[in-house]
Amino acid sequence: MRLDQKIAIGVVALLLLAGLTTINAVPFYRIGGPGFSDLFGLDLINVFLFHRCPEAVGNFYAVSGEICGDPEGRPMLYPPVLFYLFGWTAWLDFPATLYVWTAFSILAYVFGGVFLFKCLRPQHSHAVVVFSAFWLFMSLQFPMVFSLERASNDSFIFVAALLALWCLHEQRWGWTGFLLVLLTAYKMYPVFVVLGVALHLLGRPGLRPFVVATVGSALVLFVMFFQQHWVYLSEVLPGWASKQAPYTVGLDHVILNMNHWASGAGTLMCLGLLGMMFWVARQPSHGSETFLYAFAICTFFQKTAFDYSLITMYPLVAWLFLRALGESPPRERFQALGLVVTWLLIFVIFRHFGDFYAGFAKYGLMWGWLVMGALYLVRTHPKAHGDMAKAPQEA
Q1: What is the pLDDT of residues 33-56, one digit of tens each?
Q2: What is the four-CA torsion angle of 68, 71, 77, 83, rounded to 10 degrees?
Q3: Residues 239, 64: contact at Cβ < 8 Å?
Q4: What is the mean pLDDT of residues 74-91?
Q5: Whole-Å CA distances, 74 to 37, 228, 327
Q6: How far is the C-alpha of 178 from the C-alpha of 80, rounded, in Å?
Q7: For residue 77, how many other CB atoms are within 10 A of its CB?
Q8: Which candidate among 2, 222, 262, 277 keeps its CA 20 to 30 Å from the CA of 334?
Q9: Which of 233, 232, 256, 236 is nearest to 246 (CA)?
Q10: CA distances from 175 to 102, 190, 195, 213, 217 (A)
Q11: Comparing 6 with 78, which gets the higher pLDDT?
C-alpha cells in the first residue's frame, strides 16, 4: 500500500470516528401509547396506521391523520405505489413491523454496498477490506442513524437505486428504466435520476430501450392505480409541495429556504444544481458518474427534505474515497480526498455547532460542495473513469 493511501485512509478514519459523536444530534422520538412500546419509527407509523384504519379503506387520501391515529395528525402523503407496497404491515403489530423494517433497512444498506462495489471495481490492493470498513463506518454516521431512527421508507429507494446503477453499468437499459420509474412512482424525487440518465443517453446507445422501458413502465403503473394516482397528482402532491420546512429546524437540507435570505436565491441555486447535472451528463463517460451525481442531489429540490435523505449521497462519497486511493494522477487523488474530507465536515461533523450551523451557512456549504463535486467529475479525464464502466456498445 502506498504512503499516500495510508495517509488518506488515516485521515478519513479519524473523521469517521469523530462523526460518530454526531449521533447525539439525532432527535430520538418515542412513540407512546398502547401497542407501541415507546418505540421509534415516526415515518413508518404513518403508513402502518393507515393500513389499519377502517375509514381509509377505498380512498386513503380522503381521511385525516387524526382519524387514523397518527401521532402528529399527518394525512397520507405518500404515492399509491409506496402505500400498497407496505400492505404487509396490516398483518403485524407495530413493534414487529418496526423490527422487520429495520432489518430490511440494514440489509438494504449492505446489499446496496455490494451493488455499488460491483460497479466501482477498484483496482488497488485491499479494496474489499477498505471499502467494507468505509461502508460500515458510514452506516454509523448521522444520516444513516437518523434514517433508522425514523424507520424511513427511503431504504427501498437506496437498494433499488443501486441495483439500477448496476443495471446501467451492465448496459441493461430496460431494467434501468423500469427500476427508476418504479422508484419515482414510489416517492417522486428519483425523477431527477431518470432525467440525468436520459440526458446522458441522449444521442448515445441505449436511449431507445431506456425510453421505451421508462414510458411503458410509467403508463402501466399509472393505469394500475389510476384513481389514486389522479387524486395524488391533482390534490395531494400540489398541497404537499406548497409546504416548506422552516430553515431553523437544523435537520433539513431545503436549499429553497435560501429564498428567505435573498429573493430567488434558493431557486437559482437549485437551477444551478440542475445545470451541473446536465454538464456531468454530457461528459464522455459511461453514465455511472451521472447516476451517482443525480442520486446525490435528487433530494435537494424538495421543500421538505430532512437529513436522513442524505444517505443518497453515500454512493458518490464512496466512489470519491476509492478514487482517492486509486491509480489516477496524484492531483486527482488529492482532490477526491479533499471532497471526502469536506463532505464529512459539512454534512456530518459541523452539526456540533448546533443552531449556529442551522440555516443559511449549512445550505450554502452543502450547495458549494455539490458544485465542487460536479466540477471534479467534469474535469477528471474520461479515461480515469475506465474502472467504473464497460465501454458502450451499439444497441
Answers
A1: 555 555 688 899 999 999 999 998
A2: -60
A3: no
A4: 93
A5: 21, 18, 51
A6: 17
A7: 18
A8: 277
A9: 256
A10: 27, 15, 16, 7, 10
A11: 78
C-alpha cell at 183: 422508484
The C-alpha cell 440494514 sits at 106
Length of the chain: 395
For 240-272, the pLDDT digits (tens) are 777 766 655 678 888 988 888 888 899 999 999
What is residue 311's predicted lDDT score, i.e. its pLDDT?
Answer: 96
Cell of 68: 387514523
Q: Where are the domains positioned within the chain?
A: 3-388
Which cell numbers in the block locate residue 121? 471495481
Assign 3-class secondary structure to the chain.
CCHHHHHHHHHHHHHHHHHHHHHHHCCCCCECCCCCCCECCHHHHHHHHHHCCHHHCCCCCCCCHHHHCCCCCCCCCCCHHHHHHCHHHHHCCHHHHHHHHHHHHHHHHHHHHHHHHHHHCCCCCCHHHHHHHHHHHHCCCHHHHHHHHHCCCHHHHHHHHHHHHHHHHCCCHHHHHHHHHHHHHHHCCCHHHHHHHHHHHCCCCCHHHHHHHHHHHHHHHHHHCHHHHHHHHHHHHHHHHCCCCCHHHCCECCHHHHHHCCCCHHHHHHHHHHHHHHHHHCCCCCCHHHHHHHHHHCCCCCCCCEHHHHHHHHHHHHHHHHHHCCCCCHHHHHHHHHHHHHHHHHHCHHHHHHHHCCCHHHHHHHHHHHHHHHHHHHHCCHHHHHHHCCCCCCC
Q: Is the pTM of this model over 0.85?
A: yes
